Amino acid sequence: MKIRPPDGVKKISRRLIAHDFQAFLVGGAVRDALLGREVKDYDLATDASPADVLRLFPRVIPTGLKHGTVTILEGGGQYEVTTFRLEGEYQDRRRPESVTWTSDIVEDLGRRDFTINAMAYDFSTNELLDPFGGKADLDRKIIRAIGDAEERLREDALRILRAVRIASQLEFSIEPATYKALEANAGLLTRISSERVRDEFNKILETGEPSSGLAVLGRLGLIALLLPELEACRGVAQPALHCFDVFTHSLYSCDGAPADNREVRLAALFHDIGKPPTRSANQRDEPCFYSHEKTGALMARDILTRLRYPGRVVDKVTHLIRCHMWMYEETWTDAAVRRFVRRVGREHLHDLFLLRRADQYGMCRRPIDPLPLIEFERRIDALLAAAHALSLKDLAVNGDDLMRELRLSEGEAVGVILDFLLESVLDDPALNERERLLTLARRFREERLP
Ligand code: ATP
Ligand code: MG
Asked: Ligand 2 centroid to 83 CA: how many Å?
C-alpha cells in the first residue's frame, strides 16, 4: 500500500521506530487516503507511553495528555500522536473517564466506531492493517459499526450522528443492522453535550448536499429531538410559487447556500422557522405568515444558543433571518435603497444576497433567473461608490459635535437627533455637510424636542 504522508509525519514515525516503538497512521487519514480524498489531519498511534512521546519530541503540546494524546510540531505541521488505548474520551458523562493503555494496535482499533475508521497503516512495514474488514466496506461504500452496533451506540451515542455525518460526507449507505441500531437508540443523543452535537452537525452542513444528511436525521427522529422547531415545519403548506412544504423548502434552501459559508447555510436552514407559529390565511385562502422573519429570528437565536454556537455566529445568522423578507422593485427610490443598506448593514449585504439565492433555489430546487438580483446589486454598488452617508459614522457631525454646538448634556436627545440627521441624509445626500447638519439639528431641537 502506498501512502504519501507529509515530511513531518515521516520524521515522527521514523523517530518512534528508531526507538523501538510502533508507529501507525490511523483513523480518518487511512480511510481518506484509500478513497483518494484529501487527508485533513494525519493522526498517529503508537505503543510509546505519553511520557515517552514527550521525552522523544522537543516540540509538543500536551493537548489531551490524560487520554494519551499529544500534538507534535514537526516539519511545519501539527500532528496528533496517541498511545494505543482500550477506551477513553468517547464515553458518556455518567461514567468516570478512564483510560487503559495497551501495546496491541488491534485492541486500539477495536475501540473505534466504524470499520472504515478502524484501519491502520504500519510505517515500519508499509502495510495496511485491517482487522475488521474496513477496506471491503470502503469498496462497498458502507458504514458499519465494529462488533455489536447497539452496544457501540450505547457506549457513546455521538456515534449515531457520526454515522449519519460520515455517510453523507462520503455518500455511503449505512449497513442495515447498524441503521436499525441507530433507529432504536436515537433518543440516547440527549445525553451528549451540545458542543459535540454541534460539531457533527456543522460537518453535515458542510457536505455537498446537506439536505440528504438532514433527511436521514429526520427519518431517525433526530430533527424532532434536536430541532423541534424545524420538525414543526413539516407539512406546512406554502403559497403557489413554492413546490414544497416549509420543511423541505428549508432543507433545499440549505443546499442552495455555499458549502463554505456556515452562517448562510444556517440562515438558509432556519430562515422560515417562524412560519408555523405565524401561519394564517388571506381572503383567497392562501397561506400567509406575517412577520415570520421576526419570530423566526428569535427562534433561531434560541436554537443556536442551545447548540452553543459562538455569539458572533448567533448574531449574524439571526440578523440575516430578520432581514430576509425584502421585495426589491425597480421603482424603489435611491433613498429607499440607501435605507435598505442602512438596515442590513454594508458588511452583511453579500451574505443576505447569498441567502436570497439559496431561498430561491429552495423554492423548486432549481436556480432561478439571477438578473433581477444582479440589477439590485449593481444599484447598491453604484450608491456605495458614490460614498454617501449610510450609517451614523458616515455623518459629517458626531455626538460630541452636537453636545458642544447645541450645548446638550449627554443623553437620549443626542441619539434622537443623530438618527434624524441620518434619515435626512439618506433622503438627500447633499445635506451631509457640517454646517447644514448643525442648522438642521438646531431646528429639529426647537420644533420637535421638548
Ligand atoms: P474527520 O474527517 O472529520 O477528521 P475522522 O474519522 O478522522 O473524520 P475524528 O473525529 O478526527 O474523525 O476521529 C479520528 C478517529 O478516531 C476516527 O476515525 C475513529 O477511528 C476514532 N473516533 C473518533 N470519534 C469516535 C467515537 N465517538 N467513537 C469511536 N471512535 C471514534
Ligand atoms: Mg480526523
From this structure: 16
